[in-house]
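tool_call: predict_structure(chain=1)
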Amino acid sequence: MPLFVRPLRLAIASSVLAAQLAFPPTGQAQPQPGPPPSSVPDGPRDGASQPATVVSVSVAGSAADADRLDAALRELLGRLGASLSLQRVDHIEHAAGRPVVGAAAWVGIDLTAADRAVVTVVDTAAGAPVLWRVLEHSGSRQILLEEAAHVVHTALESVLAALPTRDPGEPVTEPAVPTTAPAQQPTTTPTTKAPLEATSPPPPPTRPVATEPAERAVWGMDAAALLGGHGIGDAAGIVLGGAAALSAGYRHGPWRAGGWLTAEYRVPFDIDDSAASPRAQAVALRSFPTLAMFQTHLVALELGVGGGIDIFTVDHRFEDALGRGRSQSSTKISPILTGMLVLHLAVVDNVQFVTLAGVDIDPSRPRLEVRHDLPEDATPWVVRPSLMLGVSFTMVGTEPFE
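tool_result:
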């Protein structure tokens, strides 16, 4: 073979090989350039940025208080890996129901009072409140704000730790501000300063209804011994007498009603001014209901209106035609209307001084015979006053006092 043929064959073979490499045959898969298999990750690479947990905070208070809380909460929530979205509102209730995109929790802080902060923490993922607390501090405002920030930090630790996995872009609607305490266990007290805690909203103080005890109906009975004087007529003047009396009373509530029965004997008295004036004596029987007009624990005053009878007996002594002494008596019964004022004064238990001041009215005006054999009569007064004093003893029941 000529020498120039071998170089020519080598050149042709080289050309064919280059063409095959540039244009592969039809149907053969062309390899794709790319990184080696070991460089393709199966999941997120370490150090890749993750979506931050957002806590939405609504503050009702001044702009200065909101700024101080914003600074304190950003520092504390940063330790929990959470970011802060703070907004200032006029009222905490107005912040309820606002959609907060990606918020893991909602915090309401009411600073409208001068010495109090009301903190509410709601787990928006669970849709339930986890904290309701009232903080009170009458001193530095800054201390009150720091206490509120630490309470929020402590409550959010458990909320964010139990946060379920969900789409950060999913909108979450804040539940309404709770009016009752959350069902979860109360959070621990911040170590900075123990605030005034309340695991449930303090109920408004209720004043017990003032109910007066029902007054028990009571009654009592008294016996009295009395001495006094009575006006009879022009000739007799004031006549002394003694009486025995029974009284009973029944109390119900502030009222006390009662009644009296008296039997009185009046000593003999002259019925005219003559030297041989006959002697008369009288028995008076009275009955009158009473009503207490004034009562204390020592004094009681009763007013009564009633009636009775006066029985007059007149003894006549004379001589007959033979000069023998004779006697003859006559009796007159007169109906009486009476008004009585009764005063009780306490002495010791179940013993009272009692005074009866009364007026008798005798509409019939009985005519008392001066001489049995002559048409000469004596007439008592129509209106006859009386005054009697004595001692009363409570035999049964209660005394006539308040």
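agent: The radius of gyration is 58 Å. Proceeding to next step.
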